[in-house]
Amino acid sequence: MDYIHLKDMEFYGYHGVLAAETELGQRFRITMHIAVDLQYAGETDELDNTVSYAEVFSIVKDIVEGKPYKLIEAVAEKLASAVRNAYPAVIKGIQVEVIKPDPPIPGHYREVSVEITRGEFI
């Protein structure tokens, strides 16, 4: 299995359960690993035979900066579905991590995150 990685894409959104999250918003980092067969794309050198990083970034941006969700689990699910649906013939599986680096909860930690895997992923 081959992979395309988009690491630490950063956006500003309004997802969360707490009032501060939905009123003030916060940064979100998204890391995505996309399982694909890249051999044909490598042999043909044609974008149509792979996944466009620019299009994936745009899809992720629209979701993270768009409609607010209470749970980052829902954000992760929307991201995985939207990217897979954009390339149904190419993407074999996807792993999505949604990271809140600064959630408004007391305590000491680097970040909180969820990670989901959909489809084939080795």
Automatic annotation (TrEMBL):
EC number in record: 4.1.2.25
InterPro entries recorded: Dihydroneopterin_aldolase, FolB_dom, GTP-CH-I_C/QueF
PANTHER family: DIHYDRONEOPTERIN ALDOLASE 1-RELATED
Gene Ontology molecular function terms on file: dihydroneopterin aldolase activity
Gene symbol of the encoding locus: folB
A GO CC term attached to the entry: cytoplasm
EC class of the enzyme, as a word: lyase
Role description: Catalyzes the conversion of 7,8-dihydroneopterin to 6-hydroxymethyl-7,8-dihydropterin.
Pfam families registered for this protein in UniProt: FolB
Family: Belongs to the DHNA family.
Keyword Protein biosynthesis annotated: no
The reaction(s) this protein catalyses: 7,8-dihydroneopterin = 6-hydroxymethyl-7,8-dihydropterin + glycolaldehyde
Keyword Lyase: yes
SMART domains: FolB
GO terms for biological process, alphabetical: folic acid biosynthetic process; tetrahydrofolate biosynthetic process
Protein name: 7,8-dihydroneopterin aldolase
Keywords: Folate biosynthesis, Lyase
Pathway: Cofactor biosynthesis; tetrahydrofolate biosynthesis; 2-amino-4-hydroxy-6-hydroxymethyl-7,8-dihydropteridine diphosphate from 7,8-dihydroneopterin triphosphate: step 3/4
Residues in Dihydroneopterin aldolase/epimerase domain copies: 4-118
